[in-house]
């Protein structure tokens, strides 16, 4: 997978004049071979393990937990202190219930003990610096090994098979990738390695959405891979214009934002196909995917150890009860996350799905921490916050941030800086976001001492003051202003 990703990175940097003839050749090679042997082995394992009985799944989890806890105890100062403090020895881990003896952690723990949590030097080969917006607009930085990519993609593609997708089928993607216009001015790029057609999620004007839909109609049988907000924008555009959706779309894969029932219903009615969603997060601790028979999410037990805790830290075991998702990851051996409170919430549905027979924890009513707000460009296009999300170090010296907007095409980025923040950091933020906004949205940076919280104690990413308009991509006020739980 690492070699495949390296080839893909090289591909992305090639000029279009070179991509055209080379793309024809690469398009003849099945993606499973381009993705490498590690991916193929992992996908085969995931496809089989999803049907294991509960006893086999618990045995696998226990072995994986003992392995990750042993690594953490032997290689990190932080976890050694935590384990010793409660008298916990990884070799004595004989049941899953024993994990409850360990303290939970959260994003503040990571910020305070980042270097002490590393099982390998951050400067070593094959290690990525990762960054996520985090709950309430507070950035979080951590490290992961590059080898996790094969595992991550295997779980995703096997999950999508429940929708009818098979690796190598065409995907029409609107998910935040920076896409340059072609010679005809269409914001579209094609990746023949994975058969992905990318369209710009940053240029969702009526004119561009009309062109996107016309182009998608020429792709043959395909699936949409989208943010919930971007497919909602397309559906609203079709309804507003009184048109019809392309008939070649076989399904909708909507991820990375909260899925609102009204958005799902509208998209399924407009596009005439199933709307399917997966749950995950940048820390790679928990992965859950909808059932082929319902919209309930099944938690993958071989991906990480999942817990659902109530406000007092007790396990949620009653169907219908809500709790916070707590995860222990199996795939990050660079910086283990053990009993990490994600800040995401779900309702417990049981430990087995009667519809499909999988012995997986069932959850529903997921409330993610990445809100679906966004900004309006000068041309009226709505740019979702998920598309704006940055995964580099531009915000490494920013404690918290929030956009304020009362005029289309203009915004103020309020930041609470940490020690060491200077002009260089401001320029890096301007440059990183500027590449995405392309002067369609200009913003100034304002340092502040605090950012007001909502009544529930959270901060939304966008303090949006522009009223509801008949703009192409704008979600409802409830969606764009909703705070993360």
Oligomeric state, counting identical vs distinct chains = single chain
Helix/strand-derived category reads alpha/beta
Beta strand count: 21
> Mind telling me which CATH architecture of the largest domain this is?
3-Layer(aba) Sandwich
CATH topology of the largest domain: Rossmann fold
Strand order of the largest sheet: 9-10-11-15-14-13-12
| Distance from first to last alpha carbon | 35 Å
Continuous helix count: 14
Residue windows where pLDDT falls under 50 for at least 5 positions = 1-9, 468-485
What does this structure look like?
Residues about 1-10 and about 470-485 have low confidence and may be disordered. This protein has a seven-stranded antiparallel β-sheet, covered by helices on one side. A six-stranded mixed β-sheet has the order 4-5-3-6-7-8. It has helices at about 1-15, 15-25, 30-35, 35-50, 55-75, 75-85, 105-115, 150-160, 205-215, 230-240, 260-270, 385-390, 425-435, 475-480, and strands at about 125-130, 140-145, 170-175, 190, 195-200, 220-225, 250-255, 275, 280, 290, 295-300, 305-310, 320-330, 340-350, 360-365, 375, 380-385, 400-405, 410-415, 440-445, 460-465. It is of the alpha/beta class and about 475 residues long. It has 14 helices and 21 strands. It is globular. Helix 4 (about 35-50) packs across helix 8 (about 150-160). The relative contact order is 0.12. The protein has three domains: about 1-35 and about 165-280, Rossmann fold, CATH 3.40.50; about 55-150 and about 280-365, ANL, N-terminal domain (Rossmann fold, 3-Layer(aba) Sandwich); about 375-480, GMP Synthetase, Chain A, domain 3.
